[in-house]
Amino acid sequence: MDKTPYQEFAKEKLGFQFKDVDLLVTALTHRSYVNEHQKTVHEHNERLEYLGDAVLELVTSDFLYRNYDYPEGVMTALRAALVRTESIGAAGKELGYEPLVRMSKGEQRGTERAHDSILADCFEAVIGAIYLDQGYEVAQKFINKHILVKVGAILEEGSWRDPKSYMQELAQKTEGVTPVYKTLKEEGPDHNKTFTVGVYVNEHLRGTGTGHSKQEAQTEAAREGVKSFRENSAIDKKA
After folding, report:
1. What separation in angstroms does the CA of 120 have from each of 87, 123, 164, 197, 212?
2. Cβ(205)–Cβ(180) under 8 Å?
């Protein structure tokens, strides 16, 4: 295969050339691609993802410890917000490596949710590849630039907090009531259902969310509800 696009990506987007570009190629190879090309491709990115996940957690934990004097529970929630699938998947999209990701034709036709998960896994694998090829400091700089730079916005938005607990706090503080969650829609077969849930405050719809369980959908609805409160109500940003 032509590895030039991978080196060009590294030089343009990462600021260096890989000593072993095969590490980057593997980091962007999903298991499904190996299954589809068993005669020519033998490595996928799961081992690099495992390593990258550990490096990401260490760098993030170290950064938060050195820069914020919060209790352990807050630090843990902040770290979770920074490294959750949505955050690192978005960082992957911003980097623009999606066209270089190798996946099966079936996965290419998959849902946006599945693609986002694959991009997030690739991001962790890329961290693992950078760590092996360039060392800890370069991996640390990469994480600082693409992940830790978002900590200010996360603190300001309060998105590190448990959405349902935060939604309840805001609803009680501003309107004196507890939010109510209602299932609006159920779609799909029993083994792959999708739920749509709305969160209501004083019988007004404040947010909707979807998920593969009611709990997941409620969490997404609460997240939207929090945004609604913060955008439309005179709320102390540090509440």
Report:
1. 8, 5, 24, 25, 19
2. no
**122 Rama class: left (phi>0) / alpha (psi -120 to 50) / beta:** alpha
Query: Checking DSSP bridges between strand 204-211 and strand 180-187, what pairing results, if any?
Result: unpaired
The reply to whether 156 belongs to the active site is: no
Q: Where are the alpha helices (DSSP H) in 38-111?
A: 46-67, 72-83, 85-95, 105-108
- Residues 53, 107, 121, 220: which is the catalytic one? 53
Q: Which of 124, 133, 220, 224 is catalytic?
A: 124
Q: Could you give the CA distance from residue 92 to residue 193 in angstroms, rounded to a whole number?
A: 28
- Tokens linked to 88: 């690192």
- Whether 237 has a pLDDT exceeding 90, the answer reads no
Q: What is the pTM of this model?
A: 0.76
Decide if 216 is catalytic. no
> pLDDT tens digits, residue range 119-161?
999 999 999 999 999 999 999 999 999 999 999 888 877 778 8
All domains of the chain in start order, with CATH: 4-157 (1.10.1520.10), 163-232 (3.30.160.20)
Whether 238 has a pLDDT exceeding 50, the answer reads no
